[in-house]
Amino acid sequence: MKTVGIVIGVIVLIVLIIAGWVWSGRGALIDRSQGVDEKWAQVQNVYQRRFDLVPNLVASVDNFMQRQQTTLTEVIAMRQRVIDLKESAQSALGSQNPALLDSLAGQLSRQLNSYINVVVEQYPDIKGDQLYSDLLVQLEGTENRIAQERRTYNESVREYNTYRQKSVKALLAGTIFGFPYTKEFFAAQTEAQTAPNVKDIFDKK
Q1: Is the predicted pLDDT of residue 202 greater than 50, yes or no?
Q2: Most CB within 10 Å of its CB: which of 51, 71, 86, 169?
Q3: How far apart are the first and last CA of the chain?
Q4: pLDDT at 186 > cutoff 90
Q5: How far is CA 23 from CA 17, 82, 170, 186, in A?
């Protein structure tokens, strides 16, 4: 009877050790998962800045054209497409879906390039407008921030995925507690990898 009690005690002890080991794996996964979420929040912030700046840039162009007492049909149509794209992008910001966000950002970039090309061609004097100039500088700075935050986000995803897939502790804890096996990287589509080249457009003679 005493032997049975010892065996049961040893088994219970082993179970507790294993449970504690798995539980520590859960804690490590939580830390890494929270790190990914934090970096995603930073990605959201910089993309939100871009989506907010573009309509402001469009508005500054509208104000300039009003001062010139001229209406350009093509520019008005492009303006509406830019605004529509921003509204679509808002929903993408709410979900952790890098591919969708980058796709919409790519569409916005192409539309903005076309918009600025038309405006600068039709209204070369607008390049001297201070508000327009300041917004272009801010937009260029935002693109640099986006590149940095995407890189940081991908690093945190790589750390999570590596730990989740290589560590036996993480494999057990992740399966038991429902952690995803992988988190999605920012792998931009080809057309979305090119940010709006606003500086070159602005510098055209």
Answers
A1: no
A2: 51
A3: 96
A4: no
A5: 10, 49, 9, 30
CA distances in angstroms from 54 to 1, 35, 105, 121, 186, listed in the order given:
79, 29, 11, 19, 22
Number of separate helices (H) and strands (E) present in the chain? 6, 0
The CA distance from 122 to 131, in Å, is 18
Least confident range from 42-46, 69-73, 111-115: namely 69-73
Q: How far is CA 165 from CA 21, 160, 170, 174, in A?
A: 17, 9, 7, 9
Report the candidate in 82, 201, 93 with the shortest Cα–Cα distance to residue 140. 201
Cα–Cα distances (Å) from 174 to 28, 30, 177, 205, in that order, read 10, 10, 5, 58
Instruction: Return the HEC string of 54-85.
Output: HHHHHHHHHHHHHHCCCCCHHHHHHHHHHHHH
Note the pLDDT of residue 188.
Answer: 58
Cα separation, 109 vs 101, whole angstroms: 12
